[in-house]
Amino acid sequence: MAAATDPAVTQYSHTALPPILTSVKKLSESSQVTSIPSTYTYPVNPQDKSVLIDYDSKIPIVDFSLLTSGTPEQRSKAISDLGKACEDWGFFLVINHGVPEELMKAVMDGSLRFFYLSEEEKHEYQGKHVLDPIRCGTSFNASVDKVLFWRDFLKVFVYPEFHFPDKPAGFSQLSSEYCKRTREVTRELLKGISLSLGLEADYLDTALNVKSEGLQVFIANLYPPCPQPELALGMPPHSDHGLLTLLIQNGINGLQVQHNGKWVNVNAIPNSFLVNTGDHLEIFSNGKYRSNIHRAALNNKGTRISIAVPTGPSLDVVVTPASKLVENGNHPPAYVGMKYKDYLELQQSSMLDGKAVLDRVRI
Hints:
Elements: H1 24-28, H2 46-50, E1 61-63, H3 64-69, H4 72-88, E2 91-95, H5 101-115, H6 119-123, E3 134-138, E4 152-159, H7 171-196, H8 203-207, H9 210-213, E5 214-223, E6 235-238, E7 244-249, E8 255-259, E9 262-265, E10 273-277, H10 279-284, E11 294-296, E12 304-314, E13 318-319, H11 323-326, E14 338-339, H12 340-348, H13 356-359
Parallel strand pairs: 1-2
Antiparallel strand pairs: 2-10, 3-4, 4-5, 5-12, 6-11, 7-10, 7-12, 8-9, 8-11, 13-14
Helix pairs in contact: 4-7, 5-7
């Protein structure tokens, strides 16, 4: 894995991480905090809240077992359903994926135990740069955020090289197995997506060097109870870098996805993965499968934990629309190429603002 000082990314400012900030967990546990500090007040448009709806029955569901081991007819339908979900929503739920529920719960518990380490122990993993392989902190990028977000996080690069904190005991081993299993699920989903685009099953995997060098990141998020949840956000509206992000949560909802200009509350099916498409799938598909914009809402009663595992191309791949999707000039490229490593650093060093980074590579 390239070091953060790789000259290929020097065209962007190497944003240093901020001084140690009080974690949201520590802030929320203070008996003196009955309202949020002004630095956490997020200016949400009142009209934005008015379009928040619930229609879980319409959120696409992909049966992973039919995609991988169904009859030819079942598999063909699953591939079609997967492609439709990517095109219409950029978001779907995956059921019957084969990852043991006990492993998912154990990793969730390990994440909680990490956040309950002392502030001093967690500061050992604060990191110095946005592309450090192990980094924990608060908000998104507190050195540039104009508004802080009610969230503590742990971000770890886990593939092609596995990094992980050595505390708490056993967390690294559990997470290694979990990341291996989620990587297998992601690669099968990407095969189905490749087929749904009219390409060979391994075309996307090969073109973006996902199997051997594709970046996989483990992100644990802690959203403690917020005394004024209507005034703050856990994460602002944004799309993810990479291809697909698989997410699980601890039974407390908070994920909201955008669909047809409206915000939709997501209530997960037990033991399912919540999956959203990323910016680089939008680029690769030449805009056919658009990355999903989503955000994290808060509550004042319980602590929400989510674990997101985004998977992307190799850091050194220049991602462009698939050549087979733009040949013959019928569908000219809608995006310019950018090395994934450069895109990742640019996004992680900036304020999250919808698809602001993706807009920079649109033609």
